[in-house]
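Reminder to self: tokens first, then the designed residues, so the page reads top to bottom the way the pipeline ran.
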């Protein structure tokens, strides 16, 4: 198993290097000059040339990539053109909003989907199975930002129970920060819970037809014990995979929801960098999102080894 883990770690670093190269060169080939955008059309050629030299835009693209990669390895993602501060600090600051939002949404999604998916599999073709299927279809079909707008209309505008948007921070009160993230987390969790419910139901149904589950029933175990002790643990591999993918999707794909609720997160930072043509921030945020997805897939692969003993036997 150690050899398998070392191979996965080597593949992780090779993939990260290839992704960083791809991101930098795609961003470098985008039309437009960031220095000209910052100075405007009335800038003199000398001023424009001086700013291009200061930003390193006068160097060849491969050389700029090497300098950028060395900086990334040392934790230096560059300086934002728009904000005038280090990009690494911007990402850490915005991550303090996006990461709790994604974690809260994943927890809500898991808390809804796994019990509902297991109950639907246990009551196949029954009323509960039909209700779970309806919830899954609606959750997948309805976009998260539209759910967020409905939540704002209901709980903020009509009832006045919760804030419509904004983020007060974590310093004044932890509860106030959680309340500000609750509605965005629900908006993100609805669609993810719909997908996870379907995956969980299918996985449990497939495992319930296996020989070891029938043997457990034949030994006298009740349907409930056979389900939760034997079927559900062995059905968790596709569920864990989906949870890992959902977590990365919620961090990288929360752009619309963060803009609906006016949250200062990574998604909103990426949107602002795109509109302001801040190449340094754009490529750093995209690199962070890509590294997060690759690392999460790596952790899910490692988790397989501990969930499924057959994989450990194959590795030996």
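Designed residues (316 positions):
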């Amino acid at each position: 198993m150690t050899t398998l883990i070392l191979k996965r770690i080597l593949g992780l670093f090779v993939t990260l290097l290839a992704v960083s190269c791809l991101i930098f060169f795609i961003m470098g080939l985008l039309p437009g000059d960031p220095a000209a955008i910052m100075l405007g059309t009335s800038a003199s050629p000398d001023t424009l040339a001086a700013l291009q030299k200061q930003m390193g835009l006068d160097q060849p693209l491969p050389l700029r990539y090497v300098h950028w990669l060395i900086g990334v390895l040392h934790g230096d993602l560059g300086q934002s053109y728009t904000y005038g501060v280090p990009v690494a600090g911007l990402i850490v600051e915005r991550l303090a909003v996006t990461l709790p939002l994604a974690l809260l949404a994943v927890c809500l999604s898991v808390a809804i989907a796994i019990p509902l998916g297991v109950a639907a599999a246990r009551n196949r073709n029954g009323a509960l199975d039909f209700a779970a299927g309806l919830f899954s279809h609606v959750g997948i079909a309805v976009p998260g930002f539209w759910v967020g707008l409905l939540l704002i209309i209901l709980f903020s505008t009509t009832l006045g129970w919760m804030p419509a948007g904004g983020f007060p921070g974590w310093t004044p009160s932890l509860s106030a920060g959680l309340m500000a993230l609750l509605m965005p987390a629900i908006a993100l969790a609805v669609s993810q819970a719909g997908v996870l419910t379907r995956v969980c139901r299918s996985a449990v149904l497939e495992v319930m037809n296996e020989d070891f589950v029938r043997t457990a029933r034949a030994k006298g175990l009740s349907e409930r014990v056979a389900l939760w002790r034997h079927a559900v643990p062995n059905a968790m591999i596709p569920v864990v995979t989906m949870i890992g993918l959902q977590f990365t999707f919620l961090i990288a794909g929360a752009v619309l929801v963060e803009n609906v609720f006016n949250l200062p997160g990574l998604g909103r930072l990426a949107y602002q960098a795109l509109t302001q043509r801040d190449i340094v921030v754009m490529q750093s945020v995209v690199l962070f999102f890509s590294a997060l997805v690759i690392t999460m897939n790596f952790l899910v692969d490692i988790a397989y080894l501990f969930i499924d003993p057959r994989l450990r036997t194959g590795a030996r």
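The chain has a mean pLDDT of 78.
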